[in-house]
Design goal:
about 20% helix; eight-stranded mixed beta sheet; binds manganese (II) ion; 26 strands; alpha+beta; five-stranded antiparallel beta sheet
Length: about 425
């Protein structure tokens, strides 16, 4: 897909808040989500973010604001999940994007009176998950994260032998994926307090977060078929932010030999807006630069085009003490989607190479997007070297792991000179104490 009028950096919206410098949701973004008016008891329905407003796709469709393919897409997004729109393939969401870009563009100010009745202020809305997530697979795509995480298990050879050949992943839990703002309950599980001590049943003592990019599948594939690498990207409906909350002590004891289970499945938070693949078009970049001597990807994972995306994701922490003192959240990590050794297209193709079928609304996580330097590490496991060195916050507090009342928030932007930058909204959650 190429750049078109919907990406034109000169274009503005008649909704002034969309034109502000640094706005998350300018005319060039138009992410999709599911919302309703706060406390209204209304049925959730699809919407598109523009400035500080949400365009209600259900009411816009009922009022026949759109026509042709865009109207069909809006109809498919009028219910409580976007799965039907996702399953129509990216042609449908692109038609909707083109029509909305036109209707909300400054040059269409004459349509303002027709469009305005379908706008809801974001501050009056609550967001839900954007779709029904059938399956959730979480990858392990940053070589820096994989090396740092492997160091305590295999100090001499931290990177597993398969890493440079396989986009490694595990099947995570779809039922416990929640949207921004949902509380995160500290989990219970089996932990081993020391290497020579017997395991006990306890509340998690090593709670962590992981900075990841998420993405949703649009049109899937039939069981027994696979998605070739050059078609893989177009099966991605769009992107979100994803916090793969992790109980390191539960994970550490349970993961041999089969990998993460209860240490991950208690909760995953996503940002509720889906930034479409079309909106990401200007922010493409080269694949991760493999070191000289690294193996080339096998042919089935070798794409003809660049597969990287330049998305800066920051992680902020706010503690009860900070909040009581009226302080602002502190940034403790700045990661980037470019840090993935494997591209999102390679993840899609590898997932289906055995004939596994993907379905509209399936969720993928990239894995923790740590970079090589201090300040770019995307989880406490890496920052505190598995809890051995405390992270000091701006107010002097220390954290080895997350404590009750801590709030973790991810925000992200894609920027490129000559283009209008876009934001992703917020992916946040506060830790609540374990149940008694
Ligand atoms: Mn993860």
């Amino acid at each position: 897909m190429a750049l078109d009028d919907t990406h034109d950096p000169k274009r503005k919206s008649w909704i002034e808040t969309a034109n502000a410098a640094g706005a998350e949701f300018p005319l060039q973004n138009l992410p999709l989500g599911v919302f309703r008016r706060k406390g209204s008891g209304e049925a959730p329905r699809g919407g598109v973010a523009i400035g500080d407003r949400i365009l209600d796709l259900a009411s816009a469709h009922r009022a026949r604001l759109l026509s042709g393919d865009a109207a069909q897409a809006a109809e498919a997004a009028s219910g409580p999940t976007l799965n039907r729109l996702m399953g129509m393939g990216n042609g449908a969401s692109r038609a909707l994007r083109r029509a909305l870009s036109e209707a909300l563009g400054a040059e269409a100010a004459s349509r303002r009176s027709a469009v305005e009745p379908h706008l809801v202020a974001m501050r009056d809305a609550e967001m839900t998950l954007p779709c029904e997530i059938g399956d959730f697979s979480d990858f392990f795509s940053s070589i820096h994260h994989a090396t740092n995480a492997g160091r305590s298990l295999r100090p001499d050879n931290p990177l597993a032998a398969n890493f440079k050949y396989i986009p490694v992943a595990y099947h995570s839990r779809a039922s416990s994926v929640v949207a921004d703002g949902a509380p995160v309950r500290r989990p219970h599980g089996q932990i081993k307090p020391g290497s020579s001590e017997a395991p006990i049943h306890s509340a998690c003592r090593a709670l962590d977060c992981e900075v990841e990019l998420g993405f949703y599948i649009g049109a899937g594939n039939a069981l027994g078929t696979s998605i070739p690498i050059d078609q893989a990207e177009d099966r991605i409906f769009g992107f979100c932010l994803l916090n793969d909350w992790s109980a390191r002590d539960i994970q550490g004891w349970e993961s041999t030999p089969l990998g993460p289970f209860l240490g991950k499945s208690f909760c995953t938070t996503v940002s509720p807006w889906i930034v479409t693949l079309a909106a990401m078009e200007p922010f493409r970049c080269a694949d991760y630069a493999r070191a000289a001597g690294d193996p080339a990807p096998l042919p089935y994972l070798t794409a003809k085009t660049e597969g990287g995306f330049d998305i800066a994701i920051e992680a902020l922490i706010s503690t009860p003490k900070q909040r009581q003192a009226g302080g602002t959240p502190m940034r403790f990590a700045l990661c980037n989607a470019r840090n993935g050794y494997w591209t999102v297209a390679q993840m899609v193709t590898h997932h289906t190479v055995n004939g596994c079928n993907l379905r509209p609304g399936d969720l993928f996580g990239t894995g923790t997007l740590s970079g090589p330097e201090a300040g770019t590490l995307g989880c406490l496991l890496e920052i505190t070297k598995r809890g051995s060195e405390a992270m000091t916050l701006a107010n002097g507090e220390e954290r080895r792991w997350l404590e009750d009342g801590d709030e973790i928030t991810f925000r992200a932007r894609a920027e490129k000179p000559g283009h209008v930058g876009i934001g992703f909204g917020q992916c946040g959650g506060r830790i609540e104490p374990a149940t008694a």
